[in-house]
Design a protein that fits this description.
Number of helices: 4
Largest sheet: none
Strand content: under 5%
Structural class: mainly alpha
Number of domains: 1
Order of helices and strands: HHHH
Radius of gyration: 22 Å
Number of strands: 0
Length: 95
């Protein structure tokens, strides 16, 4: 039992500790991150914070999409109705 608690603590500490890494960014991506850092925090030195926030948001959004895709569907619609609706929506976007 003590071993399991120790392992849990180790895993939790490892998962919760900040990690240092190197990212190779395109110039335009880096410029956007610096601009966003200045906008949010008033300094260009908060780029890491902006990257973490954006990645966290993107990853949680992907997880939410997968949850929705696998969840029970609330609407009953035939394939024919769905295709007609999709076509109408596509036409609206083209206008």
């Amino acid at each position: 039992m003590a071993v399991a608690e120790h392992c849990y603590t180790t895993v939790c500490l490892d998962a919760c500790m900040p990690k240092r890494t190197t990212l190779i960014l395109d110039d335009d991506t880096y410029a956007r991150l610096v601009t966003e850092s200045v906008r949010r925090y008033g300094t260009a030195k908060a780029v890491s914070k902006v990257v973490n926030e954006e990645l966290r948001g993107a990853l949680s959004g992907q997880r939410r999409v997968m949850e929705l895709a696998g969840s029970k569907k609330l609407a009953k619609i035939s394939t024919k109705e769905f295709e007609a609706s999709r076509k109408e929506l596509a036409e609206r976007f083209e206008r």
